[in-house]
Specification:
heterodimer, A: 685 residues, alpha+beta, Beta-Lactamase, Phosphatase 2c, domain 1, 3 domains, five-stranded antiparallel sheet, 21 helices, 15% strand, B: 119 residues, alpha/beta, Transcription Regulator spoIIAA, 43% helix
Chain lengths: 685, 119
């Protein structure tokens, strides 16, 4: 058989065997009248020691959970000791007198009682040690080992007194008493880390007081009853000579421990309410912070704040109002009806709560006529708290709580509610940040959609003719502008359109789509550049936002005659460059959608000229000439003109390369603010 | 977008004529400020407006759009927006777009004020 030293069964067997051996030995000593010998004494000591240790190990819990104090478990354990105390008192009262053993049956009975008594005494010891070790501190192990030394010492002292001084040594008795007193004091002082007592729930605390109080009364009365000549005393003394003093020692430890617990709870009575409140405050602030961090629903956060504020201060109702554009708005409320809230919002002018710049308790509203008039509108409330919600110096709003009785609030409420207002502030900031990041994300998305729309509206393939070479440069800005171009190659003519719609981003992209639609609708029947622009203006004037317009250049190249005609609707002039000069062509014209057709028609010109062999035409948008460097200097119309003049017989692709390079040098580290578009057309023969 | 911060508007008035002085860069980012000013004037039934562009360095299509947005309503109420003291570069932008047909553009504020006087 493998013996497991940790097994309680093993110790249980030892305990039973020891008890049986002890009883058998007692009977033998009794029969042989050997009761006063030193052997009998040694027999008592050894059997008592072994049995005590075995029983202690059996009833001492193997595992102790050190992490947390379980209040209910402590109450249960205390109740068990109370029941045991009552049992012992009862046992002591009903036990027959057994000063001397007169028969074997008396020995059997007496030993049985003694063992029950021993178990009870050890239960008290395990109870105290268990809870001392759960509340372990740095001196607990020292205390444990001291007890290991004290118990045998007490046993030896008592034995010595009995054997050598016939129980008459007052010195030894005094030492014993000193040790017992020490045990009370040390149990009392080693019971530490009692913070948990302060945080016990209020209703548990009452039970704690009751249980420890009863335990105290019982242990004291037991001690009085089990004096030097009670029945239990004799039974235990007969069983082993040091038993009574060991029992007394355990009672002392129990007394010291219970006294400390009882005292600690009593001491917390005056602060009960504060402690409970603080616990609630800390809990609710923690909850609030968690909520703010995890909730994106700002309204929910506000409602939680309002409700927590009401619960903390035990107000009857409350609300949070904000001041925006000289209007007060109730954004969260609790225990109020919607019509009461309406009354607060409509009739509350001027905003008297805003006048209170510090957290304030009004213990008697009736003494403040203004407030009284205001509050009366929603009901009978007699005291109130006003907490300003502030962001640095800007007053955002107020948290207001009402109580139906005078003096309904404490100054403690004011402190914690001020902390709440900080949290509301954080919630405000957080909600704002969240909104901003949503807005940012939305803008980003919008820009990418706008760019996609713009790109889809521009031609993907350029017409290829031998006679004319076309090259295009188009570079949208980060924030999409509204550059638009199109080239339509017919058998007899080529139509080139370049335009710029006003605005940026999504609105520009939509307007561009409208423009493209109008262009496609008329392009097949276009006879002249002027007609084209008039048709476009006709299609769009009055149909788009008043503050939006479009500038367009329309160029038609007659393939047979090489005649070019140009009309300009408010757009940048077109640059023409032949072998001898470069100049801008700027016929009169007005932007699309700025004027009705009558004015538009009167004002728009059509310019015609011959497209000379080898000459270049440059159409561009204002993103090119208005391109700004870091010093806010624009690229400029003059520079475009001179740059083109300096070019010598370059192919359009090469020209664009050169101009693009010049533009990039000019831009430097600056950001391109507007779309840039260039179309270069060259007549080859 | 370094120019977004460089925009200021000052309001003044001569008799019953409101003078809006623009300063810096008027573009898509700053146009809403001007929009709000003109809206406020209209709400107070002030329809005679001169825009002083002496210190306006740049105007974009969005800036031009502001004038277009309100001119109709202002004229319907017997008022007008007159533009004065444009820098050559700014004038060029207005001119390219055909604004001189739509708006009175005058070299000085005094002349603009005179335009509002009967006869």
């Amino acid at each position: 058989m493998i013996i497991n030293l940790n097994s309680k069964f093993y110790y249980f067997t030892i305990a039973i065997i020891t008890f049986l051996l002890k009883t058998l030995g007692d009977i033998l000593f009794f029969l042989f009248k050997f009761n006063d010998s030193i052997y009998y004494f040694l027999w008592q000591v050894i059997s008592f020691g072994v049995l005590s240790i075995a029983v202690f190990v059996i009833i001492y819990p193997i595992r102790i959970n050190f992490s947390e104090i379980d209040e209910t478990e402590f109450l249960n354990d205390t109740t068990k000791t109370i029941i045991l105390l009552i049992f012992l008192l009862f046992l002591n009262a009903t036990l027959p007198e057994l000063k001397f053993h007169a028969s074997i049956s008396e020995i059997l009975f007496s030993n049985l009682i003694a063992v029950i008594y021993l178990c009870s005494v050890l239960f008290f010891l395990t109870f105290v040690l268990k809870w001392l070790n759960i509340n372990r501190h740095r001196k607990t192990s020292l205390y444990n080992s001291r007890l290991l030394f004290i118990f045998p010492s007490l046993y030896i002292l008592t034995s010595a007194n009995y054997f050598f001084f016939d129980n008459q040594s007052s010195i030894i008795k005094s030492i014993e008493i000193i040790i017992l007193i020490y045990l009370i004091v040390s149990a009392f002082s080693n019971t530490k880390k009692l913070n948990w007592i302060a945080s016990i729930e209020k209703k548990h605390k009452l039970w704690f007081i009751l249980a420890t109080g009863i335990a105290l009364i019982l242990i004291v009365s037991l001690w009085i009853n089990i004096g030097d000549d009670s029945n239990i005393y004799y039974v235990s003394k007969k069983y082993s000579i040091g038993f009574p003093i060991i029992a007394s020692a355990v009672y002392c430890i129990y007394l010291g421990f219970i006294l400390r617990i009882f005292g600690s709870i009593i001491l917390t009575i005056p602060t009960w309410n504060i402690v409970n409140k603080k616990i609630y405050e800390v809990d609710s602030l923690t909850y609030l912070n968690k909520l703010i961090a995890n909730t994106q629903d700002f309204d929910k956060i506000l409602d939680s704040v309002t409700n927590l504020a009401i619960n903390t201060s035990q107000a009857h109702c409350g609300w949070i109002e904000i001041y925006d554009n000289n209007q007060n708005k109730v954004i969260s409320f609790a225990n109020l009806q919607p019509d009461q809230v309406d009354a607060l919002q409509i009739e509350q002018k001027p905003y008297i709560f805003r006048e209170y710049i510090d957290p304030m308790i009004i213990q008697d509203i009736s003494k403040h006529p203004q407030l009284f008039a205001e509050i009366s509108k929603i009901g009978v409330y007699q005291s109130m708290i006003i907490i300003p919600i502030q962001k640095v110096t800007e007053r955002l709003g107020s948290l207001i709580l009402l109580h139906s009785e005078k003096y309904g609030f404490d100054y403690d409420d004011l402190k914690i509610l001020s902390a709440f207002s900080e949290n509301i502030n954080i919630a405000f900031e957080y909600a704002k940040l969240l909104k901003e990041s949503f807005e940012k994300e939305r803008l980003k998305k919008e820009l990418s959609i706008a760019r996609t729309v713009q790109q889809s509206l521009l031609p993907k393939i350029l017409p290829k003719t031998d006679k004319y070479t076309v090259a295009i440069f188009s570079q949208p800005a980060v924030e999409v502008g509204g550059d638009y171009y199109d080239i339509f190659d017919f058998e007899d003519k080529m139509i080139v359109i370049i335009g710029d719609v006003s605005g940026k981003g999504m609105s520009a992209a939509f307007l561009m789509a409208q423009l493209k639609g109008a262009v496609l609708a008329i392009i097949n029947k276009v006879q002249s550049t002027k007609d084209f622009l008039i048709e476009i203006n006709n299609a769009l004037y009055g149909k788009i936002d008043k503050n939006m317009f479009i500038t367009i250049n329309c160029l038609i190249i007659n393939k047979k005659t090489n005649e070019i005609s140009i009309s300009r609707a408010g757009h940048m002039p077109i640059l023409y460059r032949n072998s001898t000069e470069s100049f801008y062509i700027e016929p009169m014209g007005i932007g699309i959608a700025l004027a009705n057709n009558e004015i538009f028609e009167n004002y728009t010109e059509e310019y015609k000229m011959n497209f000379e062999n080898g000459a270049l035409l440059l159409l561009f948008t204002d993103g090119i000439n208005e391109l700004m460097n870091a010093n806010s200097i624009e690229f400029g119309l003059e520079r475009i003109k001179s740059l083109f003049y300096s070019l010598d017989n370059y192919e359009p692709e090469k020209c664009i390369e050169i101009v693009e390079n010049e533009l990039n040098i000019h831009l430097g580290n600056n950001i391109q603010n507007d779309d840039m578009t260039m179309i270069i057309i060259k007549r080859n023969y | 977008m370094n120019q977004t911060n460089k925009f200021e508007i000052q309001l003044s008035s001569i008799s019953n004529i409101e003078i809006i002085s623009l300063n810096g860069y008027l573009d898509a980012h700053t146009a809403p400020q001007l929009e709000k000013i003109i809206q406020d004037l209209m709400q107070n039934n002030k329809y005679k407006i001169i825009v002083d562009m002496k210190n306006l360095d740049y105007i974009s299509s969005a800036g031009l759009g502001v004038f277009m947005a309100f001119i109709e309503e202002i004229r319907d109420n017997g008022g007008d927006i007159k533009l004065a003291e444009l820098k050559p570069k700014v004038y060029k932008v207005f001119d390219l777009l055909g604004f001189p047909i739509l708006f009175k553009i005058l070299p000085t504020i005094d002349e603009a004020v005179k335009q509002f006087e009967p006869n």
